[in-house]
Amino acid sequence: MKKRVMSLIAMLITFSAIFLNLPMEAKAQGYHEYYPNIFYANAQSYPYTDGNGLGEGPVFNEISDAAYSNEIGVLNIIEPNAVNYVEIHGSGCEYPVKLTCNGITKDVSYYHDSGPMMGEETLTFNITASTHVTFNTTIHRTDNNHGFRINWIKLYNVTPSPLAAVVDVKPDVLNLRARCRRIKAYIELPEGYDVNNVNVLVVLLNGTVPADLTEPPVVGDYDGDTIPDIMVKFNRTQVTEYILSKSIVFGDVVLNLTGNLYDGTPFTGYDIERVSALVGDVDCNGKVNILDVTKAAGVYGAKEGGPDWNCNANFAKPWDIIDICDLVTIAAHYGEEIP
Ligand SMILES: [Ca+2]
Ligand SMILES: [Ca+2]
Ligand SMILES: [Ca+2]
Ligand SMILES: [Ca+2]
Questions:
Q1: How far is the CA of 91 from the centre of ligand 1 (A)?
Q2: CB within 5 A of ion ligand 3: which residues?
Q3: Cα separation of 121 and 7, whole Å?
Q4: Is the CATH number of domain 278-339 2.60.40.4130?
Q5: Domain ranges of the chain
Q6: Pairwise CA distance, residues 113 & 98, whole Å
């Protein structure tokens, strides 16, 4: 029976390498697309301008001057979120035309009526992040009313990169068969950011396990490195079940922690924990030997929540104390190892 279990464990270890969780990558930017001749309450286009970017003449709530086949003199768009990259596809009418977006001016190279190059093009603008995007064309009046004809516009929203948090999950090793209620994660933020602003309601471990808020988070400096940290707890069973659900029974596991500050600024960090699913393996080195017995004996009588409590030695009832039942259980598995 034991042999069968061990060969199963060996098989699962092979899989575990595949399922190790790597730190999450930043999300791709999102964008909003705009097309001509569609009503947009957040867009205003003007057919005429004297070239200074101020609109004149009638205003249309769409991406065009309806009178001049999608050409605009000035176009204003107000986006719900800041935009930092713009793509606009279309063509000028007659040479020459310049197109300006939020103060950045580019020469238009392609024209649909006449000019050096016939055709269409995509002009791109890296703008300072803003919710207001304004396009305007060069001198553009009623007696020369052609500007830039728009086929489509894409406004890319800024996705702030998450702050790099330093995360330390405690304990540093995790026996997946030992029991206790919670594990702790200490979070430090980069200089200039206050851990008191961490919104603990949205903190997640590995994108799935929320913080256990039955006890309030603690702000302090647990490691004495003068960088303030906030300690949040997670339900240990949820964490170990998550790891076991990935068929991991032994080895190093990356635990990702993600969250936001109250102002929405995202942060992310991770810690690497060594895990073992071997009953009796207190130090999680893949075997049950005298070191495990010594470690458990060293915390004999320790109670949950006490200073010398070691969850990784808690293999038997009663679950709130390390006692003879835990030592007997460890001894019963003496000599076993992950093959
Ligand atoms: Ca740790
Ligand atoms: Ca600290
Ligand atoms: Ca061990
Ligand atoms: Ca116990």
A1: 58
A2: 281, 283, 285, 292
A3: 62
A4: yes
A5: 31-157, 162-277, 278-339
A6: 16
pLDDT of 230 above 90: yes
- Name the pLDDT band for 52 (thresholds 50, 70, 90): low
State mean pLDDT over 126-140.
Answer: 88
| Domain 162-277 identical in fold to domain 278-339 | yes
What kind of fold does domain 162-277 have according to CATH? Immunoglobulin-like (2.60.40)
Which residues lie below 8 Å from residue 26, measured CB to CB, with a gap of 6+? 159, 161, 162
190 and 216 Cβ atoms separated by less than 8 Å: no
Do 329 and 317 meet the contact criterion of CB atoms below 8 Å apart?
Answer: no
Q: What pLDDT, in 10s, does the model give residues 271-327?
A: 999 999 999 999 999 999 999 999 999 999 999 989 999 999 999 999 999 999 999
Considering the segment(s) 31-157 as one domain, its CATH architecture is: Sandwich (2.60)
Integer CA distances (angstroms), 58 to 47, 177, 263, in order: 7, 73, 40
DSSP 8-class letter at 258: E
Residue 226 CA to ligand 2 centre (angstroms): 6
Angstrom distance (rounded) from CA 171 to CA 155? 46
Task: Find the ligand nearest to 195 CA.
Answer: 2
Beta carbons within 10 angstroms of residue 283's beta carbon:
20
**Percentage of the chain surpassing pLDDT 70?**
84
Tens-digit pLDDT profile for residues 158-169? 877 789 999 999
Cβ-contact 80, 32 below 8 angstroms? no
Q: What is the pLDDT of residue 66?
A: 54
- DSSP-derived 3-state class of residue 196: helix
How high is the pLDDT of residue 21? 36
| Ligand (nearest to CA of 187) | 2
The chain-wide mean pLDDT, for the chain, equals 86
317 CA → ligand 4 middle, Å? 5
